[in-house]
Write a structure and sequence with these properties.
The structure is a single chain. This protein is of the alpha+beta class. The chain is about 50% helix and about 10% strand. It is built from five helices and four strands. The chain has helices at about 5-30, 40-50, 95-115, 125-150, 170-190; strands at about 65-70, 75-80, 155-160, 165. Strands 1-2-3-4 form a four-stranded antiparallel beta sheet. The N and C termini lie far apart (about 50 Å).
Length: about 200
């Protein structure tokens, strides 16, 4: 298998596993979703089964605690996002929002794979795209798994400033996407199309 596809598979799967594992831990430790589930298979069944109707505060899984990592600056707190990044389109009707996100997610995956296939995998100038694209792909698939399983994405990382200002909650998949997009922006500056050398003039 070419080296570039080893990088694609390893990094994409690594992001997906880390994303889903951290979300599982958040649901286990910060919500009541697994109450009464005594085995791992039962907890995984609850984790990936369709969510019940929203309850308190409009949440499907009810929080029971949160973790202050850096008081007044950063905490771990369970949140749900039925929309896109930063909650965009969350107010769309479910029968519109669901198909829209499926279409966008599948389109993004196909576009990433198409672009990745064009990389040689050996050109040093491709390094930003070579590592950035799998990060974006892993993040997109991590959040897509959430949407397929329960129609919303689990977020839990919350940066804030003394509760007066806060960045929208995010997760590991979001971080991978942001880092990957940043690397692709660098790639756009570093790797530019080189004009083809002019063909030598024919001798008269």
């Amino acid at each position: 298998m070419p080296r570039k596809y080893v990088i694609l598979l390893a990094l994409t799967l690594g992001v997906i596993v880390l994303d889903q594992w951290t979300k599982y831990l958040v649901v286990r430790d910060l919500t009541t979703r697994f109450d009464g589930a005594t085995t791992l298979s039962e907890r995984l069944g609850e984790f990936y089964s369709p969510a019940r109707e929203p309850g308190y505060r409009g949440l499907h899984f009810q929080p029971k605690t949160h973790v202050e990592v850096a008081e007044n600056f950063f905490r771990l707190r369970y949140a749900e996002n039925p929309g896109a990044a930063w909650g965009m389109f969350r107010n769309l009707p479910p029968n519109v929002r669901g198909p829209l996100f499926h279409l966008v997610s599948v389109g993004a995956v196909l576009l990433i794979v198409f672009y990745f296939r064009k990389l040689s995998g050996t050109d040093p100038t491709e390094v930003w795209a070579l590592w950035g694209l799998p990060l974006v792909l892993g993040g997109a698939l991590g959040n897509y798994i959430d949407r397929v399983a329960r129609a919303f994405v689990i977020d839990f990382l919350e940066a804030h400033w003394y509760d007066k200002a806060a960045w929208p909650s995010f997760n590991v998949a979001d971080m991978a996407i942001c880092i990957g997009v940043g690397m692709l922006l660098v790639d756009a500056f570093v790797r530019k199309e080189k004009p083809e050398a002019s063909a030598p003039a024919k001798a008269s």
